[in-house]
Specification:
By secondary structure, the chain is of the alpha/beta class. The chain has one domain: Aldolase class I (TIM Barrel). It has helices at about 25-40, 60-65, 70-75, 90-100, 120-125, 150-160, 175-185, 210-220, 235-245, 270-285, 290-300; strands spanning about 5-10, 45, 50, 55-60, 80, 105-110, 115, 145, 165-170, 190-200, 225-230, 250-255, 260, 265. The two termini are about 25 Å apart. The structure holds (5S)-5-amino-3-OXO-hexanoic acid and zinc ion. Zinc ion (ZN) binds near residues 12, 46, 48 and 84.
């Protein structure tokens, strides 16, 4: 089997500081968590920014620039900047930082969808579910807008013009067909790095059969021009990403996707999750790719 890429998604835009004291918020915390993750074995760092004043997701390029150069200077990991930002941000805001930073990689979300606050599930200790209040009190209906025009625009602005390659975020089977559409139009070229996303309410659920089905259809659509990775929300993180490693895929962990290191125990930093999945995949006989090996595998500009 080929080498395995560990992506670490350091902070994201979904979890709130009230959910864990260990969620990195400031530039220093994001830098330290990113470096720790790289030292623990992360090949790719998937990055969002936050406003250090209040911990809210931020699209301000200044907030990104407060940590990107430091991380770049202190480690050789591949830097991947989110173009998803948060579901409430307008597209131009989401693209402001990646346009300025011109990273090797960016995320690209492959469809418009509902996006419910999945961490709510981990907060529920009493499983008598209250259907009057299915989500956290302060959550609201979120529509994560990623139309075909939005996607084509991102591909052009960050891919064509700035040489970024993409982590194609596929939350559903339909997103694979959307990606195939862009391949057929010649707007996307392999090798593709497809992130199968499980457990976001609005996307596919964390059932193992969904992973085998996604892989089967991706094999049919993209043949040997793609590799896949898996991320799964909350308590589904480790089981699903382990299954990916078994099936020959790559893995993504990090506090963006889950705040926990084991049942009921908060991860103290991103490195803990990276170290855990590294142990698991090495026990399974996989070898973790270095950043330069990933650059070669995914045809990154370096
Ligand atoms: N938050 C994840 C479910 C993005 O940044 O573009 C997907 C994600 C999206 O990482
Ligand atoms: Zn993200």
């Amino acid at each position: 089997m080929s080498k395995i890429i560990i992506t670490c998604a350091v902070t994201g835009s979904i979890h709130t500081p009230s959910m864990s004291p260990h969620l990195p918020i400031t530039a220093q915390q994001i830098t330290d968590n990113a470096i720790g993750a790289a030292e623990a074995g992360a090949t790719i760092l998937h990055l969002h920014a936050r406003d250090p004043e209040n911990g809210r997701p931020s699209a301000d390029p200044a907030h990104f620039m407060a940590f990107l150069p430091q991380i770049k200077q202190r480690c050789g990991a591949v830097l991947n900047i989110s173009t998803g930002g948060s579901a409430t941000m307008p597209l131009e805001d989401r693209l402001a930082a990646p346009k300025q930073a011109e990273p090797e990689m960016c995320s690209l979300n492959m469809g418009t969808m509902n996006f419910a606050l999945f961490p709510a599930v981990d907060k529920i200790t009493d499983w008598k579910f209250d259907w009057e209040k299915p989500f956290l009190e302060d959550s609201e209906d979120l529509v994560f807008k990623n139309t075909p025009r939005d996607m084509a625009y991102i591909l052009h602005e960050l891919g064509e013009k700035r040489g970024a390659r993409f982590e194609f975020e596929c939350y559903d089977l339909s997103h694979l067909y959307m990606l195939k559409h862009f391949v057929d139009r010649g707007l996307v070229r392999g090798p593709l790095f497809i992130q199968f996303v499980f457990g976001v309410l609005g996307g596919m659920g964390p059932d193992p059969e969904n992973l085998t089905h996604m892989k089967m259809i991706a094999d049919r659509l993209f043949g040997d021009t793609y590799t896949f990775s898996v991320l799964a929300a909350g308590r589904h993180q480790m089981p699903l990403v382990t299954m990916s490693a078994i099936l020959g895929g790559h893995v993504r962990v990090g506090l963006e996707d889950s705040l926990m290191i084991s049942r009921g125990v908060l991860a103290r930093n991103n490195a803990e999750q990276v170290a855990k999945i590294r142990r698991i995949v090495e026990d399974l006989g996989r070898t973790v790719a270095t950043a330069d090996e990933a650059r070669e595998m995914l045809h990154l500009k370096g």
